[in-house]
């Protein structure tokens, strides 16, 4: 008997649907006519035990117990999934072949592997386990996946990385939450001070951004523009580029802060002749934007549809289960080359499903292959794209319909030509001063015809059209304009920019050496957990929304103020994320990662112990009963942060 273990019932049913009928539905599994049996997990069937399971003394929160580091890690069945675990245990005993059909990502790999470990599957049988990777729940895609199963042993690094992340989260969260809660109690605060490996640095980002905005002092700065006219009467504006000699009157970003300097330039160039000193004329092109990963989709959906990260993940999961899009928790933006053969069928489904994209599909070039098709960039899963399934999306909810359209349009764009333009730049010398102007003239709209155009800012340099000019040509400065502007504070985070910060965390890392190590693709959390982390901060009242903006609450600010700076900075956990990726790529090891983590944890606890107390000013009072309720909730909730 071949036993296929899916991650969840919906995937199990999709797999069973392509196996020989008739089917016999049993409690927790499906028998097929071929003798294959399909069963499933219900998300994680197992969870980490609480510290008191390792030692009853840990039921009391005491600083002297820390760090709590299990010598032999233990899992326990989740209360509401014990019966399904028993079903899998029973089926494993009679299975000749075992197939791991967890979701095609780091967490999905661990989810089934940990069940096989917990149920004490022998090493010999583990070596023969097959791996089924399903990115698309439609029957044709599932059949192909079954025909291309691999050895589960090939995915050990993925599972090890997920295991390291899970244990790191437990160690970090349990030890530091206990440490700072105990120190808070000594300082007179009776509430829980929740610390997470990812959640706390993200909260720190928002708190610091709010502080920058609150403490921002606007300063006036000055720009000079010259209205230049040719002998033929054609005109354009050029901006003054201050020279090195102007540095004493400028800020770090090259803005002139002294009005007298700008006034002097205006007076000198008014009505004077200028000479074209340099001309650049270059054709340029932009390739279509790649299909979506989950984070890229969440960022665009936040900007265009005002959907939160969690909403996007939930809606995308629904579309996946309705077989309309491929696997949603993907961190990949590329597609396998063989998938290109299905392009006409996918485009046909989009045309049938979404009448708003009919014209776009009709204008597509199905034979055109963009850079999205690249096997070397595809791992266990590929980008999120529509499937070949045809359905009436107008019977769906508004959010499902709009998100499907967003995913579909990104896919259709792959079959459009590059956006082509002519970039021109001119440099003009007037009375010894350098003035520049640029323009960007569209030659072929290409894929950009599918996307709504944003109106150009009137003072944007390339929004004007430059006349044909010649090197050495003389121009008249007909008018000189002084523009007084104000420096602007940084913008508050919103759903899109906070997700962008999590995926490109290197921009916010303080330590320059760590920043050099991190790749641009490294981030905090995973595709599957980022939405949950943000929502957790809202549910704990650390963050709040004001319109589109996300701000830290007074409680969130007070918590960051109470914690030492390294805990609320992304530097350390960003480096951990890089190490977890190295495990996946077979460039790092579990033991090295855990050893470094334990050393860093011991150092943080030592520093906390030496301080002996923390600043709890501003934290809201919490009753003892509420504190107990919060700690119980922590026991019953799987930690993902």
Going by helix content, strand content and strand pairing, the class is alpha+beta
Q: Strand tally, please?
A: 18
Spatial ordering of strands, largest sheet: 2-3-4-1-7-8-9
Question: How much strand?
Answer: 15-25%
How many H/I helical runs? Answer: 22
How far from one another are the termini? 39 Å
Radius of gyration: 29 Å
Mean pLDDT over all positions: 91
Textual characterization of the structure:
- Helices cover 40% and strands 17% of the residues.
- With 641 residues, the protein is an alpha+beta fold.
- It is flat and about 95 Å long.
- The chain starts with a strand and ends in a 5-residue tail after the last helix.
- 40% of the residues are buried.
Structural features:
alpha+beta; disordered C terminus; about 40% helix; about 650 residues
In short, what is this structure?
With 641 residues, the chain is of the alpha+beta class.
List the helices and strands and how they pair.
Blueprint: E1 2-6, H1 9-16, E2 24-26, E3 29-31, E4 37-40, E5 46-48, H2 51-54, E6 75-77, H3 82-94, E7 97-101, H4 106-118, H5 123-127, E8 130-131, H6 139-147, E9 150-151, H7 156-186, H8 199-215, E10 220-229, E11 235-241, H9 259-269, E12 273-286, H10 294-305, H11 309-321, H12 343-353, H13 358-362, H14 398-412, E13 419-430, E14 433-444, E15 474-486, E16 493-494, H15 495-503, H16 512-517, H17 530-539, E17 543-546, E18 549-552, H18 554-562, H19 565-568, H20 571-584, H21 590-611, H22 624-636
Parallel strand pairs: 1-4, 1-7, 7-8
Antiparallel strand pairs: 2-3, 3-4, 5-6, 8-9, 10-11, 10-15, 11-14, 12-13, 12-15, 13-14, 16-18, 17-18
Helix pairs in contact: 4-7, 7-20, 7-21, 10-14, 10-15, 11-14, 11-17
């Amino acid at each position: 008997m071949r036993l296929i273990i899916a991650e969840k019932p919906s995937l199990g049913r999709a797999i069973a649907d392509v196996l020989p009928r008739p089917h016999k539905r049993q409690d927790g599994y499906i028998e097929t006519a071929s003798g294959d049996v399909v069963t499933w997990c219900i998300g994680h069937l197992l969870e980490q035990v609480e510290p008191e399971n390792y030692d009853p003394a840990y039921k009391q929160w005491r600083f002297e117990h820390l760090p709590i580091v299990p010598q032999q890690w233990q899992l326990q069945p989740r209360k509401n999934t014990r019966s399904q675990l028993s079903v899998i245990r029973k089926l494993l005993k009679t299975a000749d072949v075992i197939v791991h059909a967890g979701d095609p990502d780091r967490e999905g790999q661990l989810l089934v592997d940990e069940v096989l470990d917990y149920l004490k599957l022998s090493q010999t049988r583990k070596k023969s386990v097959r791996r089924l990777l399903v990115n698309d729940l439609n029957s044709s895609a599932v059949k192909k996946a079954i025909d291309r199963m691999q050895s589960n042993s090939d995915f050990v690094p993925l599972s090890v990385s997920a295991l390291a992340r899970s244990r790191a989260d437990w160690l970090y969260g349990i030890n530091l939450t206990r440490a700072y809660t105990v120190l808070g109690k000594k300082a007179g605060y009776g509430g829980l001070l929740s610390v997470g490996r990812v959640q706390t640095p993200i909260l720190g980002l928002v708190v610091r951004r709010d502080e920058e905005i609150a403490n921002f002092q606007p300063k006036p700065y000055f720009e000079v523009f010259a209205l230049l006219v040719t002998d033929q009467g054609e005109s354009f504006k050029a901006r003054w580029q201050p020279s090195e000699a102007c540095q004493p009157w400028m800020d770090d970003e090259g803005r002139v802060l002294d009005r007298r300097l700008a006034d002097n330039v205006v007076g000198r160039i008014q009505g004077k002749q200028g000479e074209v000193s340099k001309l650049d004329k270059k054709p340029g092109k932009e390739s279509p934007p790649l299909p979506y990963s989950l984070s890229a989709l969440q960022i665009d959906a936040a900007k265009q549809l005002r959907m939160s990260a969690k909403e996007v993940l939930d809606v995308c999961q629904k579309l996946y289960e309705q077989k309309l899009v491929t696997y949603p928790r993907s961190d990949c933006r590329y597609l396998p080359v063989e998938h290109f053969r299905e392009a006409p069928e996918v485009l046909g489904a989009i045309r049938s499903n979404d009448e708003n994209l009919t014209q776009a599909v009709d204008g597509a070039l199905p034979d055109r292959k963009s850079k999205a098709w690249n096997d070397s960039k595809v791992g266990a899963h590929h980008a999120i794209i529509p499937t070949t399934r045809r359905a009436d999306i107008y019977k769906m909810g508004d959010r499902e319909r709009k998100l499907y359209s967003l995913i579909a349009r990104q896919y259709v764009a792959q079959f459009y030509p590059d956006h082509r333009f002519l970039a021109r730049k001119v440099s003009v010398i007037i009375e010894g001063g350098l003035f520049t102007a640029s323009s960007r003239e569209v030659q072929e709209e290409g894929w950009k015809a599918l996307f709504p155009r944003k109106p150009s800012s009137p003072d944007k340099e390339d929004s004007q059209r430059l006349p044909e000019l010649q090197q050495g040509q003389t121009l008249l400065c007909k008018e000189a304009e002084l523009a007084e502007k104000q420096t602007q504070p940084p913008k508050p985070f919103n759903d899109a920019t906070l997700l962008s910060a999590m995926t490109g965390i290197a921009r916010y890392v303080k330590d320059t050496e760590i920043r050099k190590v991190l790749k641009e693709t490294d981030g905090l959390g995973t595709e599957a957990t980022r939405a949950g982390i943000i929502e957790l901060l809202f549910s704990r009242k650390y963050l709040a929304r004001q319109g589109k903006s996300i701000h830290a609450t007074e409680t969130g600010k007070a918590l960051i103020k109470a914690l030492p700076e390294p805990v609320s900075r992304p530097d350390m956990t960003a480096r951990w994320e890089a190490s977890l990726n190295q495990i996946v790529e077979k460039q790092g090891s579990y033991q090295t990662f855990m050893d470094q983590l334990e050393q860093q944890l011991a150092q943080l606890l030592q520093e906390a112990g030496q301080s002996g107390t923390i600043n709890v000013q501003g934290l809201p009072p919490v009753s003892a009963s509420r504190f107990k309720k919060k700690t119980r909730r922590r026991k019953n909730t799987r930690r993902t942060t």
